[in-house]
């Protein structure tokens, strides 16, 4: 009996560019991005999906890339922090983070930015959170207004060891007004 194959060719469309990669079946999306494509914006923080430093958008939804096996996402569209700006023009969230000092050491910032982008889309599609008032949640799919409480709840999976949370919330508020 022949041993099973341990690698597969995986196609990922990352920041608008298609890549075909020969990957070990155990390779995560995070490791494919960092080690095979040289995109080091998404960080390996805890490697257990508890800190959010590895957050990217996969098919438009925010996700912790450290737990996603690349072979299970063959054909997926991945957006990393490197894909947010358009040329020299920063994405509005990036500009707001700079304006509001929404970072200190910067380690969590790429994950914070991708998570914020995904969170804004989720709220815009009417997805309620734990703090969404029942009357507003009942209006789904109407957009959920992003109050500071909503933003804090929705961003709670992204940790900042420096404690820049107040500035992160303010930056997101600036973009969503």
UniProtKB/TrEMBL annotation:
Pathway: Alkaloid degradation; nicotine degradation. InterPro entries: 2Fe-2S-bd (IPR002888), 2Fe-2S-bd_dom_sf (IPR036884), 2Fe-2S_ferredoxin-like_sf (IPR036010), 2Fe-2S_ferredoxin-type (IPR001041), 2Fe2S_fd_BS (IPR006058), Aldehyde_Oxdr_Iron-Sulfur (IPR052914), Beta-grasp_dom_sf (IPR012675). Residues 8-84 form the 2Fe-2S ferredoxin-type domain. It holds the Pfam family Fer2_2. The keyword Oxidoreductase applies. Keywords: 2Fe-2S, Iron, Iron-sulfur, Metal-binding, Oxidoreductase. SUPFAM superfamilies: 2Fe-2S ferredoxin-like, CO dehydrogenase ISP C-domain like. One of its GO terms (molecular function) is oxidoreductase activity, acting on the aldehyde or oxo group of donors. This is (2Fe-2S)-binding protein. It comes from Streptomyces klenkii.
């Amino acid at each position: 009996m022949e041993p099973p194959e341990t690698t597969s060719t995986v196609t990922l469309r990352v920041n608008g560019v298609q890549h075909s990669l020969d990957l070990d079946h155990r390779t995560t999306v995070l490791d494919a991005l960092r080690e095979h494509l040289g995109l080091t914006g998404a960080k390996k923080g805890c490697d257990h999906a508890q800190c959010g430093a590895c957050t990217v958008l996969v098919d438009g939804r925010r996700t912790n890339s450290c737990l996603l096996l690349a072979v299970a996402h063959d054909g997926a569209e991945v957006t990393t922090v490197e894909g947010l700006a358009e040329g020299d023009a920063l994405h509005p969230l990036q500009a707001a983070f700079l304006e509001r000092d929404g970072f200190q050491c910067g380690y969590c910032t790429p994950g914070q930015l991708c998570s914020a982008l995904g969170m804004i889309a989720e709220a815009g599609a009417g997805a309620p959170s734990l703090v969404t008032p029942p009357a507003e949640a009942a209006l789904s799919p109407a957009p959920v207004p992003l109050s500071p409480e909503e933003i804090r709840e929705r961003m709670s999976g992204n940790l900042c060891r420096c404690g820049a949370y107040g500035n992160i919330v303010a930056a997101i508020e600036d973009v969503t007004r």
